[in-house]
């Protein structure tokens, strides 16, 4: 049982907000799906890594560099433990975008890839750029990837299935184990885009039975510029490097170069040392709060917001009622940008509310929904009932302005 579980149900304490300097001043930040605010411990880890501890990794013979190398590899082990993987299966990348580009480019058996209508552009464009044949799986009426349709579509020509674990627009969660079973049945691999899942639920790649898993640190209360690619050891082993440079080599001559084994093979150049240290701190922080508690906390806020929006006759809600931490909606007769602007007005009686308005890097999904944009509120571990109340008050004010 979570240490936050009390008689009133699972509620993370509002005092957690005090650890986030970015939330000072009572800001109602409802854009965590775009990027999460950072706790002080992550900021402190950044300052330490950039200051007192700073040195390069993997090269120095002096103690500071050796220590930094140990810390860098300890962070890799921490990421691995966080998602139930082996340490040498974790490749540090700039983020989910780079991770998917890496796989789309280097996976040796480029055939057909099955994507879904709800994918983020970063799980569409890399496959296009790398020359894959793309098929698109439809969605169910409530905005989940339709795995019955996937089952009917998959053929032995498919070598990859790449789906979002949680949709960044609809909050819908994939039945990953079934997706893995369907992919494997035709001999394809399953890549999961875990950007919106890892900050919201405990992830165990072995239980999911996927083959690749990617995420970005900045959505997990960590810094920008760092993320992770997990791939099964035998798959990474069979993949050629996708960028050349320092660190990723075994031996270089002008006649030819041999490469280091994974994961080093995929980490050309001086890595994002500072960001890696801060990601380690972010994972420690998130796990100290508890993914189970965060999931339950966000689920309660999603229910609260969806019920309030359901009760209005001028709001269209997208996605399933049990969405993970993310609520997309449309307010009749009001463009999401206008709503977002009014919500952010200074000196309102509900405070300033930050939501996302736009296509959320999911233009094919917008087309499917028949809209050019949605308004999206997304929660984090620091979100509270007063954030929901402020958003609802702001929607009411917008309604009065627009009539
Ligand atoms: N996939 C999903 C589901 C996302 O939400 C995002 C970020 N909005 C990305 C991929 C891309 O992540 P990044 O820009 O950090 O590489």
Care to describe what's here?
This protein is α/β, with parallel strands linked by helices. It has two domains: 5-30 and 290-402, Aspartate Aminotransferase, domain 1 (Alpha-Beta Complex); 42-288, Type I PLP-dependent aspartate aminotransferase-like (Major domain) (Aspartate Aminotransferase, domain 2, 3-Layer(aba) Sandwich), CATH 3.40.640. The chain is built from 13 helices and 17 strands. The strands form five sheets. The chain has a seven-stranded mixed beta sheet, sandwiched between helices. A four-stranded antiparallel beta sheet has the order 13-14-17-16, with helices on one face. It has a two-stranded antiparallel sheet with strand order 1-2. α2 (63-82) packs across α9, α10 (291-310) runs parallel beside α13 and α11 (336-343) packs across α13 (385-402). The longest helix is centred in the first third of the chain and has 20 residues, at 63-82. The termini are far apart. The relative contact order is 0.16. The mean pLDDT is 96. The structure holds 4'-deoxy-4'-aminopyridoxal-5'-phosphate.
List the topology elements.
Layout: E1 5-6, E2 9-10, E3 28-29, H1 40-50, H2 63-82, E4 90-93, H3 96-106, E5 112-116, H4 125-129, E6 133-137, H5 147-153, E7 158-164, H6 176-185, E8 189-193, H7 205-208, E9 212-216, E10 227-231, H8 233-237, E11 249-253, E12 256-259, H9 273-289, H10 291-310, E13 315-318, E14 326-331, H11 336-343, E15 353-354, E16 356-358, H12 363-369, E17 374-378, H13 385-402
Parallel strand pairs: 3-15, 5-6, 5-7, 7-8, 8-9
Antiparallel strand pairs: 1-2, 4-10, 9-10, 11-12, 13-14, 14-17, 16-17
The chain binds 4'-deoxy-4'-aminopyridoxal-5'-phosphate (PMP).
């Amino acid at each position: 049982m979570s240490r936050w579980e009390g008689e009133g149900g699972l509620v993370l304490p509002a005092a957690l907000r005090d650890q986030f300097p970015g939330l000072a001043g009572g800001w109602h930040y409802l854009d965590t799906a775009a990027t999460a605010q950072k706790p002080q411990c992550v900021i402190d880890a950044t300052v330490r890594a950039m200051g007192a501890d700073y040195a390069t990794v993997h090269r120095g013979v002096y103690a500071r560099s050796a220590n930094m190398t140990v810390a860098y590899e300890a962070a890799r082990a921490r990421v691995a433990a966080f998602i139930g993987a082996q340490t040498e299966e974790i490749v540090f990348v700039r983020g989910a975008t780079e991770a998917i580009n890496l796989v789309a480019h280097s996976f040796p058996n480029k055939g057909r890839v099955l994507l879904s209508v709800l994918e983020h552009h970063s799980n569409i464009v890399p496959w296009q750029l790398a020359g894959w044949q793309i098929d698109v799986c439809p969605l169910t009426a409530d905005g989940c990837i339709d795995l019955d349709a996937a089952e009917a579509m998959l053929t032995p020509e498919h070598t990859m299935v790449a789906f979002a674990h949680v949709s960044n627009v609809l909050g819908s969660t994939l039945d990953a184990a079934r997706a893995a079973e369907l992919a494997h049945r035709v001999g394809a691999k399953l890549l999961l885009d875990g950007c919106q899942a890892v900050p919201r639920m405990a992830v165990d790649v072995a239980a999911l039975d996927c083959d690749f898993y990617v995420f970005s640190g900045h959505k997990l209360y960590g810094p920008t510029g760092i993320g992770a690619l997990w791939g099964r050891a035998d798959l990474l082993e069979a993949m050629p490097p996708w960028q050349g440079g320092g660190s990723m080599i075994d031996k270089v001559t002008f006649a030819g170069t041999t490469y280091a084994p994974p994961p080093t093979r995929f980490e050309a150049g001086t890595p994002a040392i500072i960001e890696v240290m801060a990601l380690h701190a972010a994972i420690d922080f998130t796990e100290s709060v508890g993914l189970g508690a965060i999931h339950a906390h966000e689920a309660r806020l999603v229910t609260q917001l969806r019920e309030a929006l359901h009760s209005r006759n001028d709001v269209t809600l997208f996605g399933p009622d049990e969405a993970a931490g993310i609520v997309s909606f449309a307010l009749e007769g009001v463009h999401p940008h206008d709503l977002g602007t009014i919500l952010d007005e200074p000196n309102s009686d509900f405070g300033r509310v930050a939501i996302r308005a736009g296509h959320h890097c999911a233009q094919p999904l917008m087309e499917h929904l028949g809209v050019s944009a949605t308004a999206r509120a997304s929660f984090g571990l620091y979100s509270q009932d007063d954030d929901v109340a402020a958003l609802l008050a702001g929607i009411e004010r917008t309604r009065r302005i627009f009539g």
